[in-house]
Each structure stands twice: as structure tokens, then as C-alpha cells.
Amino acid sequence: MSANPPPEAHRSKSRNHLLILPEDARPRRTLSRGPRASVLLNLSLSIYVDSASQENLTLAALKDAARLLAYFVTTILVGALLAPPLYWVAQWLVTHGCLQVLAQFDFETFFHRALLIAALLLLWPLLRSIRVRHLSNLDLAANLRWPRHLAGGFVLAAVPLACCGAVLVALHIYSLRSSVAWGAFGKIIAATVFVPFIEEGLFRGLILGILLRSSRNYSSVLVTSALYSIVHFLKAPERTSTIVTWSSGFNSIIHSFSQFTDPTLVAAAFTTLFLIGWILADARLRTRSLWLPIGLHAGWIFANGAFNRIARRDMLLLPWLGKNLLVGIVPLSVCLLTWLLVRVWLKYDGLRKI
Known about the structure:
This protein has about 350 residues and is an all-alpha fold. It has one domain. Helix content is about 70%, strand content about 0%. It has twelve helices and two strands; from the N terminus they run ααααααβαααααβα. Strands 1-2 form a two-stranded antiparallel ribbon. It starts with 6 loop residues before the first helix and ends in a 6-residue tail after the last helix.
């Protein structure tokens, strides 16, 4: 009656109790080597592919950075060579009774216009070298809300800056002009229309788009904002080249760095320009389009230009206030307010960060 159960029953009972018999253990150890080796092989291949992809991204980033650097260096060189002929042509027109308005501009004005012309001329070769065929190559997309973003950006930038100007007049830091040159508003409107499209297309469209292809958002915005502030901050003193020669453009480049020697001016002007560049880049990233940055840029240009035409500065309070409403710590605070309003507006407008 106490006979041992058959081997099959014993194995079945052992399996139910999660016991492994010696005769079952050997095949399991043998069969388990295949999957384990396969997992190790797949892991090593994954590591190899990931490292190769990382190397490709790093190489692409270096190539894009080299192309951008070459673009900027070539733009400066071409602009320096192009500025003297532009100035000579303008003076020839003035002496022959044509376009007398050009007589009021010094060489530095023509130098900055020459840089802009060079940047536009070299733009097409740059686009071909980085293979930009569509907006998506620059992390941009069609914006069906573009009228709303354009108008909203203009209002959110212009109204706080105009209110700041009104407060400064009330505090007698600025005073209203006795007469207003209304004809000058044509230049302000022209700058309001054309400058934002050109600068936003270049800085927030092209440069930021190229950097976003191989870098993170934070570092891309940091580099773009720094370039934007440096380009606008570098300016040679007026009448640097009283006698214009072929080397006058390079002389302007050398004297353009003189402003960095003044720490007060750096704190007042450079910091504000950097923040403006950051705000415009942030608006571009949050909407994946240029319409909101264009609206903000246009609002700042119009409010600042219009205020300077109807009011004059009675005192200079660097670093709190500079030569206009976009220079100084006070304008910096106004720009921060605009940034906050833009974020709140986008949030309640139903637009999510992409």
C-alpha cells in the first residue's frame, strides 16, 4: 500500500510546488543560453546605434555652426567693402540735386545698410548649403491664427511701452515737444512694417531654426539672443570716418566694440536687447511661427519711435533710462511685463506649448 507513486506523478506534483528536479535543470540551463546571448547582442547593437546617432548629431551641429559662422564673417566682410561705394553713390546723387534727404546720413548709416544688403545677398547660398526646402526644416509650421497673433503681439508690446512713456512725461523726465514733425512718422511706419519681417526672418526664423535642428531649445535660444543683442549693440560712434575710403568699413568694425568698454551702457542697453531677443525667441517657440514675434517687434519699434517724435528727454539716468524707451533697467522691466502678458494671453487663448 505504501508503494512509491509513478515518476510522472512525482514530476507533476513537483512542478506544482515550483521544484526543479535535477534531470530537468540541466536542459533548462542549456536552453537558457540562447536567449541570454541574444539579449546581450541586441543590447550591444543598440548601444552601438545610439552612439553612432549621437556622433551624427554632433557632426551635424558642428557643420551647421560652421556654416553660420562663415555666413556672419562673410556678411561683415562684404558689408565693409560695399559701404564705401554706397556712400559715394549717395553723395553723387546729392551733389546732382537728387534725393537731398541722403545728405543727413553719415557713413555709419550706410555701413549698417550695407551689412543688411550683404546679409540678404548671402542668404540664398546659406539656405542651399543647409538644405532648407520647407518651413518644417526650420521647425516652423503654418499658423492659422496669424492675424490674431500679429495684432495681439503689437498691442502687448506697444501699450505697456506707451504707458511707460506717459509716466516718464508725468515725472518730468521727458517733456512734450512744442512742435511735432509729422512727416517723420512715415519713416517710423516704414520701419514698423519692414524691419520686423527682415530681422525675425533672419534671427528667429533662419538662425534659431538651424540651431534647433541639432541643439536643445534652451541653448539655441541663448545663442540666438546673444547674436541678436551683439549685432544691435555693436555700433561705431558717429563721424568715425570723416573721410571715406575703401578701408572705412573695416574702421567702423574696429570702433564698433568701443561700447563694451562702458559697463553702465552694457547694463542699460545690452541686457535689454538680450531680453528682447529672448522674448521674441520664446514667442516663436510657443507658436512655431514668426507672426507673434513680428507683432511684438513691430509694437516696440512703433511705440519707441512715435514717443521719441512727440517727446524729448530732459535727463539721462543711466543705467535706469537711456537714450530711448528701449534702453535701461526701466524699459527692461516693461519688457518683462510684456513677456508675462504674452504668456498669460497664449495660455488663455487656448494655445499650448509645442
